[in-house]
Amino acid sequence: MSSYTDTKYQEDADTLMVTDSYCSLIVWNDEVNTFEWVIETLIEICGHSTEQAEQCAIIIDSKGKYAVKQGSYDILKPQCDAITERGINATIEVTAN
Predict the structure, then answer these.
(1) Coil, strand, or helix at residue 52?
(2) What does residue 95 show for φ and ψ, rounded to 5 degrees?
(3) Which of 28, 17, 12, 10 minimizes the C-alpha distance to 72?
(4) In this structure, what are the phi and psi dihedrals at residue 57, rounded to the nearest 5 degrees?
(5) Contact indicator for 60, 27 with CB cutoff of 8 Å
(6) How many CA atoms within 13 Å lie on the side-chain side of 11?
(7) Are residues 28 and 90 in contact, defined by beta-carbon separation less than 8 angstroms?
(8) CA pair distance 44, 59, nearest whole angstrom
(9) Residues ≥6 apart with Cβ < 8 Å to 2
(10) Cα 8–Cα 14–Cα 16 angle in degrees, nearest 5
(11) What pLDDT, in 10s, does the model give residues 44-57?
(12) For the whole model, what pTM was predicted?
């Protein structure tokens, strides 16, 4: 019985760590979306300034991906979903503490 309890506790702790961890919202480069569309998306979805969104788009294009925003999973997940709904590839990565 003790083994089950320890395992269950560890599973709960792992789940909490993922949702409470510091995360990065990654936007990936592709050959489909225009700079203008990516910039507009970052402004509308992530709240970036025009200059910040332009810089992110340049880095995404040159490096293949870029962490456009950091924060908690709960905040970044809806933004990631909204970006992918616009046809732009985006993921969330958990950042090591």
Answers:
(1) helix
(2) -90, 135
(3) 17
(4) -60, -40
(5) yes
(6) 6
(7) yes
(8) 19
(9) none
(10) 105
(11) 999 999 999 999 99
(12) 0.77
CA distance 13 to 64: 33
Rounded Cα–Cα distance for residues 71 and 2 (Å): 36
Task: Supply 90's token pair.
Answer: 């985006």
Question: In the chain, what are the domains?
Answer: 21-94 (3.30.1390.10)
Distance CA 68, CA 92 (A): 10
pLDDT in tens, 4-55: 434 344 444 444 445 456 999 999 999 999 999 999 999 999 999 999 999 9
* Token output for 91: 């993921």
